[in-house]
Write a structure and sequence with these properties.
Elements lengths: L1 E6 L3 H12 L4 E5 L8 H6 L1 H19 L15 H25 L3 E4 L1 E6 L2 E5 L5 E11 L3 E3 L12 E2 L1 H4 L8 E5 L3 H12 L3 E5 L11 H14 L2 E3 L3 E7 L6 E6 L5 E6 L1 E4 L3 E3 L6 H4 L23 E3 L10 H15 L13 E3 L4 E6 L2 H7 L3 E7 L4 H6 L5 E7 L5 E8 L2 H13 L4 H6 L9 H12 L6
Amino acid sequence: MFDLIVIGAGPGGYSAAIRAAQLGKKVACIEKRPGKALGGTCLNVGCIPSKALLDSSELYETTLHKMEKHGIKIGSVALDVAQMLKRKDDVVKTLTTGIAGLFKKNKVTPVYGAAKLTSPTTVQVTADDGSTSTLEAGHILLATGSESTELPFLKFDGQRIVSSTEALTFPEVPKHLIVIGAGVIGLELGSVWKRLGAQVTVVEFLPRTLPTVDGEVATTMQKLLTKQGMTFHLGTKVTGSQPAADPANIVITATGPDGQEVHFEGDRVLVAVGRRPYIAGLGLDEVGVAHDPKSRRVTVDRHYRTSIPTISAIGDLTDGPMLAHKASEEGIIFAEQFAGMQPHLNYDAIPAVVYTWPEVASVGLTTEQLKEQGTPFKTGKFPFLASGRARAMDEIDGFVKVLTHADTDRLLGIHIVGPRASELIAECVTAMEYHGTAEDIARCTHAHPTLSEGVGEAARAAWAGQSVNF
């Protein structure tokens, strides 16, 4: 008998399991991924391996195109895709092994197999060999994450038409990679293979890229990626596929913005149109856990409890952005509430990052959202071309954009496109978490020369009406 059974060992699940165990609860965590690999999609086939490939491909492109400008001359440069993939796998293995070590250290019981709810307090686990066992607990937490969304007329085959999982393991650089979907995953993986030498065509149904990002930032990022060699077809609806004359290729059919049929031929197709909660085989209907059959989202209250009082859910199963750090924080908050504590999570201060180059990072509301709400706001901007540090790095693309309430100066949103935006956003999150103002950031002394000065100058522009250094 356990105090808590966690189903799913991804960022949300393992964080909840470890924190609950630290607070004195007897915890089991069930994971169905083959090979007893903990860490969920994020560590195994998502955040971590994609960032490993992004860093490797960035180094390759830097070596080819940027070193000479710095006075560094390099002879012949060769690409070893197998070694690059091996390094990526080694990074993943190290981190997943680390989660197993944390389970052992904190006395979390790992259970391997597919979980199914059989009552409000029991779970049946089917192991890889087909054997079954039943676990019982006072409470059950669902943290099964999400899976890639498949288009009904363009089924994944694991070879030519793939999800993000297979796009992390191409044994050779595609000649022409067609990316369906101009969201975060599509642009990140498209960037990896573009840097390594592939022709990359992005086909997007909407009239813009990165639909959840501030419009000005998205437009800037599209221009920069186009400059890097990507081709974009926006407002274009994919309708299916057909064989190509070359048996190694496939032809994607689509309808363009003008209503005319268009065709795209390539040797690999990455379908990156989003993700959906993973609930297959969980037994939600049998036990009575309320969820939306269309979106698959599980209905929870502010304490993450479902319609069944002894069953809770977090992460990608619930409303909100499908982000690993959102799931992780929810897991910790849930565990602390379960132990009788009263923590909180500010959903208005959860950052989001796109790991292209330059990077995109944001927290809070976008310009479009503020206009839609009718909120009076001011905008402060600072371009990296005016940053001494960015100029020294030869990384001057992008800007910092600070949005504040026109009457109170309170921070409403901060959006960055530029070098190391993923790190710069942390200061902004902290300021927003403590209900800060643009003046608060501007009054903080930022080291010179650093990229972070750009955040301070954009905040000064929003607060004082102009920046000192631009």
